[in-house]
């Protein structure tokens, strides 16, 4: 089983992925980690802007599904575990990425939550990409929300492609119960 996870900024994509890894022994693959490595390789500072620009450049140069395809290929090349374990790929942001995953038989899950809850979460996790004001947070999300250019993020369209959408305004336990229900679906 391959599950791609998309969703709004700070909605709980990582929480769902971590749960699948810890509770169900999924192999974890991260679009963000792949892109952060590319940013560092270029000698740039890792932040949301450099990650977004790098992702857009890679999609424009290699095709809209290339990033996720590279992540899967790299994981398969490093280990046979990909063939033996279920896989979760976190942070699907482009339509081409979602289409590529679905062409491989993957299920796409989306996670969303109310904007103020999400901003509070990202400030609380204090990663290098999350030290932003509420205004910048909203601006970043608008930039990624709706775009006709296939080399850019389009969260609106990717979320619309999701097989399952989790509204994560409550507790982790409530979210995990929804995950367990989704895992039971064919």
UniProtKB/TrEMBL annotation:
Annotated InterPro entries: P-loop_NTPase
PANTHER family recorded: DEPHOSPHO-COA KINASE, UPF0200 PROTEIN MJ1399
Pfam families: AAA_18
Name of protein: Dephospho-CoA kinase
Native species: Candidatus Adlerbacteria bacterium RIFCSPLOWO2_01_FULL_51_16
